[in-house]
Design brief:
Distance between the termini: 68 Å
Number of strands: 18
Structural class: alpha/beta
Radius of gyration: 23 Å
Oligomer: single chain
Shape: globular
Helix content: 25-40%
């Protein structure tokens, strides 16, 4: 009798098949979720479906990624499904959720020591799509690891963890498995978006279970890892009259082939120093607005003009929230600044009532920070994402690449140049796209199902500055309508 159990298990293994056995194993991975019906700062019951939870992505080290899932207002599983990642290598996805494309936003009113107020975002992308917002990599937002080794991740390992998270999440939520899946992100997160899409595509080809219904991806104000992300700032600044003809010519002459973050040519380094000084006179996230301190959603580089100031800790701003000390408050921001709502996010996310409502596991994250970039280990092991853009779109997947036309952090000139460098034929030439009878930006379409678009008046990142135009662009593209 003692030998019957192993034999039965062996028979069961072959009867269900290897892929199904893997699915059963995945289903046993640690995950938890909570339906959230109310949030501190929002009056009454939430008028949208919000679920929060964790998915374990590293069993050995106990690493878990935290997520917010918002169901589409247009019809649940019948709507497209979007995995959304926010910029910065360790920035919380709450920025994307509450400052850019999610269903609620902070009321930009002076902070009075209580939980900040929330209101509905009329241009939420969840009106047309289901969106899974994920705090990634491990250590960002409310994601955590029980062992220190779990924080030692990089671009490739994080991408693979996100693929595992999707597989697990769809096993736990099978009604969405057939939904049209898209991967999206902005700024630094857009660097890994096409790599994740390629890994999902490879999983589909290998018939890895569950099979995801990948249709494409979108990348906003996207970094690639290439020098062009930075070098394009020079002609952009010249075109807007921020630098002189003479400085532009000097940089063009002496910085050819140089790494703009670490130039070896002395004349180039000197010219770039002058360039950085001049660029610091404008707000590089949106060059027409008054300069404000802001916590950038991208990693700091030599030419990101205000990231250093933005990350200064002002100890006199430390506040007490429901018995919790905010030891690392954001820079003091005047209420009129576009970044004021990012300032409020610290006091909302560190409120004990907020943590209880979201189901944050006690003892996992002592203090929520909007960005941890530079404070935690992270390996940049994807040198360039451009080849992954080419690979994925060459296989027939759709892509939307968009830029705010007033973004000097990742200028549209560089993005337009690398999109063109893919070498795919044009199927719809450069033209305006419209909203309310006026141009909302300009766009061009390529044979490989890739669309590049600018958003008029938008900065870095685009939805924070031009939410209505970005919603129009996204909703048309995700529903496969002409831009």
């Amino acid at each position: 009798m003692a030998g019957w159990l192993p034999a039965l298990l062996l028979c069961l293994f072959f009867s269900v098949g290897v892929s199904t056995w893997r699915q059963l194993a995945l289903a046993g991975a640690a995950s938890s979720s909570k339906i959230v019906t109310s949030l501190p700062g929002f009056p009454g019951r939430l008028p949208f479906h919000l679920e929060t939870g964790y998915v374990e992505v590293d069993e050995d080290n106990g690493a878990e990624l935290f997520y917010y899932f918002v169901e589409s207002e247009a019809g649940g599983e019948n709507s497209p499904f979007l995995l959304w990642l926010t910029g910065g290598d360790h920035c919380s996805v709450l920025s994307g959720l509450a400052l850019e494309i999610g269903p609620f936003q902070f009321v930009a009113e002076p902070y009075n020591g209580t939980v900040p107020s929330l209101e509905i975002n009329p241009y939420s992308w969840t009106k047309v799509a289901n969106i899974l917002f994920v705090d990634t990599p491990v250590g960002a937002g409310f994601s955590f690891s029980r062992k220190p080794e779990g924080y030692n991740v990089g671009e490739i390992s994080t991408s693979l963890q996100l693929h595992e998270l999707l597989l697990q999440w769809f096993i736990d939520h099978p009604k969405f498995l057939a939904s049209r899946l898209y991967i999206g992100g902005d700024s630094y997160a857009a660097k890994i978006v096409p790599f994740i899409a390629q890994k999902i595509s490879e999983g589909i080809e290998a018939r890895r279970s569950p099979i995801l219904n990948l249709k494409g991806y979108l990348a906003g104000n996207p970094r690639t890892g290439e020098n062009i992300d930075i070098s394009s700032m020079v002609p952009y600044a010249h075109g807007f009259g921020i630098i002189s003809d003479q400085l532009y010519e000097t940089i063009s002459r002496h910085c050819q082939g140089e790494d703009y973050n670490s130039p070896t040519n002395a004349l180039c380094a000197q010219a770039l120093g002058t360039f950085n000084s001049l660029l610091s006179e404008v707000m590089s996230a949106q060059i027409l607005l008054d300069t404000c301190a802001y916590a950038s959603s991208g990693p700091r580089t030599a030419t990101d003009k205000s990231d250093g100031d933005a990350r200064k800790i002002l100890s006199e701003e430390a506040g007490i929230l429901m018995g919790k000390q905010v030891n690392n408050p954001p820079p003091r921001v005047p209420p009129g600044c576009i970044s004021y709502t990012a300032y409020l996010s610290y006091y909302w996310a560190n409120n004990e009532l907020t943590r209880e409502a979201l189901g944050i596991k006690k003892g996992t994250v002592d203090e929520w920070l909007r960005c941890q970039s530079g404070n935690m280990p992270f390996t940049r092991d994807i040198k360039s994402s451009i080849k992954y853009h080419r690979n994925v779109t060459a296989n027939g997947y759709r892509a939307l690449i968009y830029s705010g036309d007033h973004d000097a952090i990742v200028p549209h000139l560089g993005t337009q140049a690398w999109v063109r460098s893919l070498g795919f034929p044009i199927v719809d030439g450069w033209r305006a796209w419209h909203l309310h009878g006026q141009s909302a930006g300009f766009t061009i379409s390529y044979w490989n199902n890739m669309i590049f678009a600018t958003v008029k008046g938008a900065g870095h990142t685009a939805p924070q500055y031009e939410p209505e135009r970005c919603f129009a662009m996204f909703s048309r593209w995700i529903l496969d309508h002409p831009l």
